[in-house]
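DM from R.C. (forwarded with permission)

"hey, sorry to bug you on a friday — could you get me a structure for this? deadline for the figure draft is monday and I only need the backbone to look sensible"
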Amino acid sequence: MELCTVTIMPDGARAQVPRETSLFDACAQAGVEIKGACGGGGVCNQCLVKVSPRRALRIEGAGSLRPEQIEAGYVLACKCRVIDDVVVEVPSASRVLAHRVLMEDEGNLKAYPFAPILSVGECQLTPPSLLDNASDWDRVKAQLEGDEPKASLGVIRNLPGALREGNWQVSLSMIDWGDGPKVVRVEPGSTRTFGLAVDVGTTTIALSLVEVETGKILATRGSYNRQGRYGDDVISRIIHCSQPGGLEDLQRAVVGTINALIDEVVDAAEISREWIDGVVVSANTTMSHLFAGIDPSYIRLEPYIPAFTELGPFEAKELGLKVNPQAEVYLLPSVASYVGGDVVAGVLVSRLHQGDELSLFVDIGTNGEMVLGSRDFLVACACSAGPAFEGSGITCGMRAMEGAIEKVAIIDGEPQVQTIGGKPPVGICGSGLIDCLAKLQDGGIIDRTGHFVGDWERLRPSAEGREFVLVRAGEGGCQGDIVITEGDIKNLIRAKGAVYAGMRTLLKALELDVDAIDRVIIAGGFGQYLNVEDAIKIGLLPDIPRSKYEFLGNTSLKGARAALLSREALAEASRVAASLTYMELSAGNTFMDEFISACFLPHTDLSLFPSVIGKEVLAR
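My reply, with the result:
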């Protein structure tokens, strides 16, 4: 096999890759992750790199690169194949940097009794003899109280050596998913057992290492989902699965991300990874399929059918997770193609299914997923908001990482920005975009349709109508100006319109008015940093008393931990999934009618936003 050397500058990192490897993948193998919102389609232009010599690549397309960029040696990494040794300069704007990942708090999740799925049993056995010749496994079972345990083949293989090494004293790590105990590890002498709660999000992955004896979180870590190199949204990734080796690429990427985080938490807690005996994973339906290595293709094709909604438990070695190979992995059940285990986890943690009050659970991201209900009923739906809230598809948009603008103030047409980490601004993330849209509206710089109005110093012509300069070149951390265009604003209005239309469609189906909602639960990373006042002002969230809004943070990770530490919570997750009625918004015209009406600021029907109208009147 002919190998080519790829050198990344200014890092000095190197990788040897087979000839004809994608330059995008070659950079990843060298340890440098590059942005790629379009999944290799060559249309987002985020994977812009500079190469030398150009002849070391077979270039399959230039996307929308400008002639001067091509002249300067820039290419799109996703549209190039390595055919010789090459030096690649990766600018900071093209790199995937450290994300802000929403973790979970220590909370005790007192709604569910503490009854972990993992436990340790110790056995002191009498050595066998010619007169007592029971098998090793029968001898162990006789010492254990309660239901007769099962055991994996790997455990039985290790049992004879462990018994004799421990002088007939062993510890058994057992897991019980509600159908009786199963031994997943045997050790001579004594041992400990730990569990992992994992939130596999489209953009980020977070996990917690849990000491099951006490329920204490020993370490929590998070990172971007390495699947992002194949596209920002689930549809791009599903499409990538249709390419040769595509499904394997995505499964390897998500497991690789999780394994890197496992390395971090076991080091922080100073334990052996072999002591991790149980893993509970919470994910949306597509991410569940990709994690398990199951083709998700039919999720995006009418009538939108997933391969499964509940799966597991199965052994960690089947996925390549760096824990006890016989550790068991369970995916929280999904409901439908676009309502997954992460939403079930949210219902579990918020307990909206146990209350008399009418609650609305909302998780806003690439998809807007929501559940409306109480102890009497649960109805769920999902709408495609697009990747705008993740900063994708926006001229200077970016994910929530250091240097991303997260807050905007505009005074007399002059913007002031605040960034994540206080770093020089390099782009604008989802929460910053919502803030910016509200402030542009407040300042009279855009009208209700999202068009710029007036003659402001920072307004100028662009390819998409006009654009407003938020940060001038030289003031930030990137080479050019940071702007928001009329095209960006239209994307944001469509995204917020889809989410609001989903809520209205749910309410209409149940013949309820927005005033009937007693509680609105906002979940997820985007929601945690959302300014509710601004979200209402632009028509993303309903105009109801602000006291009804509640932020629960990363309910996906919390739900996985609840299932790990309480067999009742684990069983409740299955009951919640089974009781959720899924509403397909593409069936019928109600959602589309609501969506069209919601594509204004805040809405075509201003009576739905009385507090916003009042502020406009007062301003006049």
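R.C.: lifesaver. The longest strand covers residues 216-224.
me: no worries. The first helix runs from residue 23 to 29.
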